[in-house]
Design brief:
By secondary structure, this protein is of the alpha+beta class. It has 2 helices and 7 strands. Bound molecules: zinc ion.
Amino acid sequence: MTILSTWSPVGTPAGGVPAGLADACLRVGRDLLGTIPERLPAGFRWMLAEEGPDGLPAGPALGWWAGEPLFWRGVDVTLPDARLALFVADLVQDHLTGYAFVQWPECPGHTHPLEPVADAGEAWWRCPASHRKLSPIGLLAGPAPA
Ligand SMILES: [Zn+2]
């Protein structure tokens, strides 16, 4: 695996990271830091890597870095912005649920987590039971700072 770039959870990556992917990471990073900052690995960063010969399928992979790769998944960086936001939210949610045993984000008043969904233009968190929209991805903890 070749690390192409790492950047802070709500930071702007150096060149080489597609803008849509950088924005998707920023949105999910805001939701994470705005809701469960104490549950996140110290000093973690987004990681864009190129999977090597043993990593199939070949191509770019997105994950977290904290001195070493923590987890990653191949990503289609040509997806529309809303689909990328859904991808990143789903990737992080899967990791937190499966490996950190953190149910995130909490659905208010329910015992299940919210689920990320997207259509052609928007990505948001919704209650998996009522399908009620709770928040756009990126605004879970309130309005973005100006
Ligand atoms: Zn619910």
